[in-house]
Structures are given as structure tokens and as C-alpha cells.
């Protein structure tokens, strides 16, 4: 298959395509349409796809794709595909559009065979009569979307493809799984014929194979498959999927059918039983006869137990919080006393005072409208993770002014804020960083040394 051997659409073929199009779309609206015709290219049978369009009362037709029966690639031009709108064709070369689209190719491009193959009815299936190898392919009875796929499978499964198509199953003649099954098991073909009135096209291949194997009606098998998918993929079904396997799962489905048990209601019941600590290997618990009564009972018991667990957890949290608050109230003054040497009350402009109690932090936070009074600052102070100091004017040591957080381990100021988390004046920052901080670091070293000696 070569691009240089692609010939223009013959006049008689263009006429046939137009007749086919007028018959299929007598209103000749703007719906995008594709058709195909069979031809030969370099000794290979090819399918040439054409696009059709009406514009200002005139009918247009152009080649857009070429696929070969033996080729692994195809040729296309002036066509693009997206998942929302499907295939689009540029008609600039036909003089319809004022400017070329971004996907205009100005010639044939090469890509994978599976691409650029829109549904396009073949208008000349009789062309296959020129090829003796397709004489008995029954391709004229094939009504599917991919004639080349049909012919490729016919070369591999000639008897099976011909038989299925002539028996009225062209949609199965392009399914390798079915063809392989028919080739190995003639009984499956007889089963298909017996069930021809069951509208087999509406069922998936796994459904057909399972119905043939079990002898159950197709509708029953389909319902079972749907239920199994819902069971595996349904929301919140993981506990059931993990517990029920093999024969236990089959028994569960029989139980659903026998007692008309909704799957999701049983899932709620199962979770409630697990929450209550019941043994679900016990048949009485796993498959109760009066499901509705036991469902309501177990759900109510589970909810009562859940309330008890929550109340217990809340009580434990409250007790733990009260204990922690008591520890903070006990440890906070000890930490303040230990690091009181970091205070500086000798400067003529500012004074630095350490917080003495948790209440001091709360009052400071309220007065300055920031978060130093929050619980986690009290806890960090009580455990000597950080220290909180109050910066005051030397002539008004009781009036909140600036709050700073000091890291004991890093020997640095972590935070320093005034009212509403505002940045202090440069004079305050100069005092804190250049006067107080060196003093505090020297004092903290003495306290650490004394702690080690003691």
C-alpha cells in the first residue's frame, strides 16, 4: 500500500456514494457522514473512507483515510479526532472554508492501522468477488462497522466466520473468543442457533459463554453478572468481598434470592454484626431466617454500642485534658521560676518579664488581641519547649505592650508581636535583638550548666 498509488474517487463510485447518501439522509442536513468503498492498492485490498458534506446546496465528497487488509499502518489526511465531538474534516481544499483548519495536512499522513477509522458503510462489497480467497466469506451479509477486521478474521477462521454470518450472527463473527470457541466446540454453535430468538446481540460474550456452560437462561446469567459486579465494586462492599469467597459467596447469593434480601441492607447488617463482635462463621448470625427483624435489631444494638464508645472516648479525652491542664498549672510556675534569670528589668527604656502562670498568657492574649493565650502555648511553656516573655515600657511594667516567644534549644526569638500581631517599632526590635537576646543567651547557658552540676 503506497500513497502514490491512491487514485482519485472514480466518477461512478462518487455517483454511487451520493445515491447511498441521499437514501440514508434524504434531508441532506449538516450531520457529518462517512462512507467507504473497496479498491486495490499495490496488489492489496484496501478500504477507502470518504467524507461527505452539503454546502450552499452543493454536495461534496473527499477521501480522508485508507486502510489495507494486510497493512499495519493507514493513511489519512485533513481529519482529526477528539473524544467529545468525534471526527472532524477540513474542507479548505474543496473551497468551502475560508481558511485551513489547524489539522489540515496538505497530503497523506501515516499512522497506526487502528486509528482514523470512523464508522463508514461500504457501498461496493461486490468488489470482493475479484478475490478468490474471499469467495465464501459471506462479507455481503456482514453489517458491522469494520469490514477489514471481518476479512482478517476470515483468513484465520474461514469456516467459523462464514457459518456464523450465514446463520445470522455477523456481530459474533468478529469476536475471536467466539470464533475460537466455535472451532473447538461445535455444541456451542448449536446452542447459539437454539437461542437465536433471545436477541443475543444484547448480551456480552462472557454472558453467552457462562450461559452455555451452566445451562441457565441468558437473562438469569446477566442478572447474576450484574449482581456480582455490584458486589465487587459497590460502595462499602469491601468487608463482604473479603469475607465471602467461592462456595460461601454462592451461598450468600442463594440466600439473597431465597429471602429477598437487598445486598446493601445485608452489608449494613454484616458490618453491625462485626461491630458487635459476633461470629459470622456461625450460620445463625450469617444467614438469619427473619432477616428484617435481625437487621433492625443488630443495627440498633450497634448504634447503642457506638454511642457508648463515643461517650467513653469523650470521657477519656476530657479526663486526659483535665490531667494535662492540672500538669500545666503545676509545672508552669516551676519553669517560670527556673528561667526567671532571663528577665531584664535594668534597662531604662524597656523591661522584659517572664510569664509566671497560665493566666498571665491568657490576659496577655486578650489585652493584645493575639493568640499567646492559646492552650498549645501554655503546654509548650509548661514542658520548657519555649518561653514566653512580656516586653513592657520601663515606666509602665503592668501595661501589655509586646509579647515574644523564645526557643530554649535554639537560643533565638521565634516570634515578637504587638497589638493585633503588629510588628514592633525598630527601637523595640533593636532592644530585643541587640540588648536582651545576648543577655538571655548568656543566662540560659548558666542555667544549663547549673542544671548539669545539680
Report what the structure shows.
- This protein is of the alpha+beta class.
- Among the domains are: 3-123, no CATH class; 339-453, Aminopeptidase (3-Layer(aba) Sandwich), CATH 3.40.630.
- Helix content is 46%, strand content 16%.
- The protein has helices spanning 11-24, 147-156, 158-166, 176-184, 186-194, 205-214, 218-233, 238-243, 246-259, 263-276, 283-286, 291-338, 358-368, 375-382, 426-453; strands spanning 33-41, 44-55, 58-68, 73-76, 79-82, 86-89, 109-112, 350-354, 386-393, 402-407, 412-417.
- It has a 5-stranded antiparallel beta sheet with strand order 1-2-3-4-7.
- A hairpin with a 4-residue loop joins strand 10 and strand 11 (412-417).
- Helix 4 (176-184) crosses helix 5 and helix 12 packs across helix 14 (375-382).
- The model has no long low-confidence stretch (mean pLDDT 92).
Strand-pairing-aware structural class: alpha+beta
Pattern of helices and strands? HEEEEEEEHHHHHHHHHHHEHHEEEH
User: What sort of overall outline do the alpha carbons produce when their principal axes are compared?
Assistant: elongated
Q: Give me the Rg, rounded.
A: 42 Å
Strand order of the largest sheet: 1-2-3-4-7
Let me know the largest β-sheet: 5 strands, antiparallel
Q: Kindly state the number of beta strands.
A: 11
Strand content: 15-25%
How far the N terminus sits from the C terminus, by CA atoms, comes to: 95 Å
Regions with little confidence, pLDDT below 50 for 5+ residues? none
Amino acid at each position: 500500500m503506497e500513497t502514490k498509488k491512491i487514485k482519485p474517487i472514480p466518477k461512478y463510485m462518487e455517483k454511487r456514494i451520493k445515491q447511498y447518501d441521499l437514501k440514508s439522509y434524504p434531508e441532506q442536513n449538516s450531520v457529518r457522514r462517512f462512507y467507504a468503498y473497496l479498491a486495490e492498492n499495490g496488489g492489496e485490498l484496501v478500504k477507502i473512507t470518504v467524507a461527505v458534506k452539503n454546502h450552499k446546496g452543493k454536495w461534496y465528497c473527499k477521501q480522508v483515510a485508507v486502510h489495507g487488509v494486510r497493512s499495519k499502518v493507514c493513511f489519512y489526511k485533513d481529519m482529526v479526532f477528539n473524544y467529545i465531538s468525534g471526527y472532524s474534516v477540513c474542507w479548505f481544499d474543496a473551497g468551502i472554508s475560508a481558511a485551513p483548519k489547524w489539522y489540515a495536512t496538505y497530503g497523506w499522513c501515516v499512522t497506526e492501522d487502528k486509528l482514523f477509522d470512523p464508522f463508514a458503510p461500504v457501498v461496493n462489497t461486490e468488489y470482493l468477488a475479484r478475490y478468490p480467497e474471499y469467495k465464501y466469506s459471506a462479507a455481503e451479509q456482514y453489517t458491522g462497522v469494520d469490514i477489514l477486521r471481518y476479512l482478517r478474521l476470515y483468513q484465520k477462521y474461514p469456516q467459523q466466520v462464514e457459518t456464523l454470518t450465514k446463520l445470522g450472527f455477523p456481530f459474533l463473527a468478529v469476536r475471536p473468543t467466539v470464533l475460537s470457541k466455535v472451532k473447538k466446540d461445535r455444541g456451542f454453535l448449536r446452542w447459539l442457533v437454539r437461542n437465536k430468538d433471545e436477541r443475543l446481540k444484547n448480551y456480552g460474550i462472557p454472558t453467552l459463554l457462562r450461559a452455555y456452560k451452566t445451562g441457565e437462561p441468558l437473562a438469569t446469567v446477566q442478572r447474576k453478572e450484574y449482581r456480582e459486579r455490584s458486589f465487587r465494586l459497590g460502595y462499602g462492599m469491601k468487608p463482604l468481598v473479603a469475607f465471602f469467597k467461592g462456595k460461601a459467596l454462592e451461598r450468600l447469593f442463594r440466600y439473597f434470592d431465597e429471602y429477598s434480601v437487598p445486598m446493601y441492607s445485608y452489608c449494613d447488617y454484616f458490618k453491625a454484626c462485626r461491630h458487635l463482635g459476633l461470629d459470622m462463621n456461625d450460620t445463625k448470625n450469617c444467614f438469619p431466617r427473619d432477616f428484617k427483624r435481625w437487621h433492625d435489631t443488630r443495627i440498633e444494638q450497634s448504634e447503642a454500642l457506638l454511642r457508648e464508645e463515643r461517650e467513653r472516648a469523650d470521657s477519656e479525652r476530657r479526663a486526659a485534658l483535665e490531667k494535662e491542664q492540672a500538669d500545666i498549672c503545676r509545672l508552669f510556675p516551676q519553669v517560670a521560676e527556673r528561667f526567671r534569670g532571663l528577665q531584664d528589668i535594668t534597662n531604662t527604656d524597656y523591661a522584659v518579664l517572664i510569664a509566671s502562670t497560665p493566666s498571665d498568657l491568657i490576659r496577655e492574649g486578650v489585652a493584645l488581641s493575639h493568640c499567646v493565650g492559646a492552650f498549645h502555648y501554655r503546654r509548650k511553656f509548661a514542658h520548657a519547649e519555649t518561653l514566653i516573655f512580656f516586653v513592657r515600657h520601663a515606666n509602665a511594667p503592668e501595661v501589655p505592650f509586646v509579647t515574644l516567644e523564645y526557643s530554649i534549644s535554639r537560643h533565638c526569638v521565634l516570634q515578637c508581636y504587638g497589638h493585633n500581631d503588629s510588628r514592633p517599632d525598630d527601637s523595640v526590635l533593636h532592644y530585643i535583638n541587640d540588648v536582651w537576646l545576648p543577655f538571655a543567651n548568656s543566662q540560659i547557658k548558666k542555667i544549663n550548666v547549673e542544671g548539669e552540676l545539680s
